[in-house]
Amino acid sequence: MSTKRKRVNLSTGQKCKICEMKERDLRIQNVELTQKYNIGKSTITDILKESKCWLTITESQENVKKFRGPKQVILLNSFQGWLGGFKKWHDLRRFKKQGEAESAPSAESIERDRLALQQFLTPYNPEDIWNGDETGLFWKMEPSRVLACNSLSGHKKEKS
Fold first, then answer.
1. Which residues pair with 98 in a beta bridge?
2. How far apart, in whole angstroms, are the C-alpha atoms of residue 110 and residue 123?
3. How far is the CA of 47 from the CAs of 13, 33, 104, 118, in angstroms?
4. InterPro entries, from UniProt (predicted)?
5. Cβ(58)–Cβ(81) under 8 Å?
6. Overall pTM > 0.70
């Protein structure tokens, strides 16, 4: 009767260490590595086949366990490199929109609207006039942080 080995998920850092150990000491046997990490021989063989890729991984990625293989790591690095280069080339940075300066009404329009509102409300008794406010999901609201070449002044938040 064979005993089943529990499934072991190696982190990217552990896979790098396996490749480094084998690179440092070619006499080390794959069986020794399987016993040390409690994984199968075929797993060690697969990791060592792609050792060049595993050894290119940066320290910040060593603790990640989600990668299926070094090809995904290279794709992730190249995308981040491409995106970083694109942002640098087009001088794009992250800015927080400030205030509501561009959507502020002019003094003349405020006065005109105030007078129009007074005329509209003249037929009503002051005790019959109420101010209502709303709460809810603001699905038309723009993000407060954007990628842009220079800082932007904000608009009044759309609260539809």
1. 153
2. 22
3. 12, 11, 61, 78
4. CenT-Element_Derived
5. no
6. no
